[in-house]
Amino acid sequence: MDLKIRSLYQCGACRDIHDDEDGAMECCRPDIIELYEYPVCKKHHDDEDDAFTCCGVDAIKCPSCYRDYASISLSYQAIKIAGYCTTCNPIFTIDQQIAIQDQHYQQTGKREHLHD
Fold first, then answer.
1. Same structural domain, 97 and 65
2. Residue 116 has pLDDT above 60, yes or no
3. I need a surface site. Which of 7, 42, 51, 59 has the fewest CB within 10 A?
C-alpha cells in the first residue's frame, strides 16, 4: 500500500474535485483549491499535515522491500513482530501468525488471517 499523500484540485465555483490542476482550471475557469487525500480512507483535507495525521493511522516501512504499510494492515503487525511484511515473505511460524493476527485484532477490532 502506497501511503503517499495525493494532491487534488477543487473547482472554486462548482466544487468538483479533479486529479490534475489543468482539469480544475478548465472546469468553469475559476480559482481552484488544492486538497490533499489520505490514501487509506480517501478523505480530503485542506492541509497536507491534516492528511498525514488522518484517522490516527501511522505507517511503517518494511526493511526488506521498503513498502509502506498503515497501522491498520496485517503487514504493519508482521513487520513489528517478524521483521518483514506479508508481501515480500508470506511465510511465518505458527507463533508469529498467532501474534500478528492477535495484535491486528487488538489494534483494529477486525479479524483477518494471514492464510486462508
1. yes
2. no
3. 42
